[in-house]
């Protein structure tokens, strides 16, 4: 008598053929008969999009083209005249603004800054274009433009706070630097569009090329980037108060350097956190200068006129 053929198990593979798994007993009773054990995939958050680096590059011999004239004109000559003729004879700023024709001084600045700007743009044009990636690497990256007025407003608040602190500690209000006084005297004789071009756009690019692009962006290939930031902040701030620094009056230096320190810190931190973006920090610096020029040319005259009208009203309304 022949043996009948075995009946195929309708519920999957026999128990002795089930694969081993952490839930082996579950499979023994026929759970998930099709194939081996498959773990349930765990949810993971999407990977955060990192801020891309603008790759400022390494130091090149071409960087000397704008660097040499800038260092000679804005560092070497003032230091030379200070050492030769004494501290009271230092060039630039208040002395220059008080002794020379403001229009002639402006034309000199326009020629110097215009020539150095052309050289800076020649050697850093590609880096400038690469740095625009901070606005384009994501669909909403352009919203970083809104950070520019926000950072500027933060600098204003920081300056107000530091003004109160200095006044509280010393009993004196922060003074206007010779550099600022000279610029204000020049803006009194030149048209708005000319001041906007030189002080609002060209000047900021030249300064950001040296103090952020070179001293932070390229130097950070050799030093820690935050150490480079400290170097940049110090040189930028004290260069703008060179007259006060060479005068030896440390109280005057303290009263004039604070606004430049806060501004320099803001520019440097913004440059680092935006991936060493020359485009972003240039726009930030230009926004600051353009707002200052708008206030100088349009807001202050209106405020002085309004003050005069209020004084006239008060004269006819004696208390």
TrEMBL record:
InterPro entries: CAAX_protease, Rce1/LyrA-like_dom. Residues 1-51 are annotated as: Disordered. Its EC number is 3.4.-.-. The keyword Acetylation does not apply. It comes from the Bacteria. It is an enzyme of class 3 (hydrolase). This is CPBP family glutamic-type intramembrane protease. GO terms for molecular function: peptidase activity. Keywords: Hydrolase, Membrane, Protease, Transmembrane, Transmembrane helix. The chain crosses the membrane at residues 60-83, 103-124, 145-170, 190-211, 223-243, 249-273, 280-300. Residues 192-291 form the CAAX prenyl protease 2/Lysostaphin resistance protein A-like domain. Coiled coil: none annotated. GO terms for biological process: proteolysis. Residues 23-35 have a biased composition (Low complexity).
């Amino acid at each position: 008598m022949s043996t009948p053929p075995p009946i195929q198990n309708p519920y999957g593979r026999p128990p002795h053929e089930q694969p081993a798994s952490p839930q082996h007993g579950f499979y023994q009773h026929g759970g998930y008969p099709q194939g081996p054990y498959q773990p349930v995939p765990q949810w993971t958050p999407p990977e955060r999009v990192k801020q891309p680096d603008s790759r400022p590059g390494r130091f090149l011999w071409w960087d000397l083209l704008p660097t040499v004239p800038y260092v000679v004109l804005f560092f070497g000559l003032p230091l030379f005249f200070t050492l030769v003729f004494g501290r009271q004879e230092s060039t630039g700023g208040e002395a220059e603004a008080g002794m020379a024709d403001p229009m002639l001084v402006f034309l000199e600045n326009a020629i110097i800054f215009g020539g150095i700007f052309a050289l800076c743009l020649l050697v850093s044009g590609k880096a400038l274009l690469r740095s625009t990636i901070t606005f384009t690497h994501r669909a909403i990256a352009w919203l970083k433009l809104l950070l520019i007025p926000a950072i500027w407003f933060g600098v204003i608040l920081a300056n107000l706070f530091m003004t109160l602190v200095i006044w509280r500690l010393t009993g004196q209000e922060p003074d206007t630097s010779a550099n600022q006084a000279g610029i204000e005297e020049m803006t009194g004789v030149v048209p708005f569009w000319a001041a906007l071009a030189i002080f609002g756009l060209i000047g900021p690019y030249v300064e950001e090329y040296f103090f952020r692009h070179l001293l932070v962006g390229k130097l950070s290939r050799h030093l820690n980037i935050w150490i480079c930031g400290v170097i940049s902040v110090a040189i930028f701030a004290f260069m703008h108060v060179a007259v006060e620094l060479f005068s030896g009056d440390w109280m005057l230096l303290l009263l004039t350097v604070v606004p430049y320190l806060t501004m320099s810190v803001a520019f440097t931190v913004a440059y680092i956190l935006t991936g060493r973006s020359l485009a972003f920090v240039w726009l930030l610096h230009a926004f600051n200068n353009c707002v200052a020029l708008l206030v100088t040319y349009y807001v202050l005259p209106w405020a002085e006129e309004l003050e005069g009208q209020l004084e006239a009203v008060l004269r006819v309304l004696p208390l």
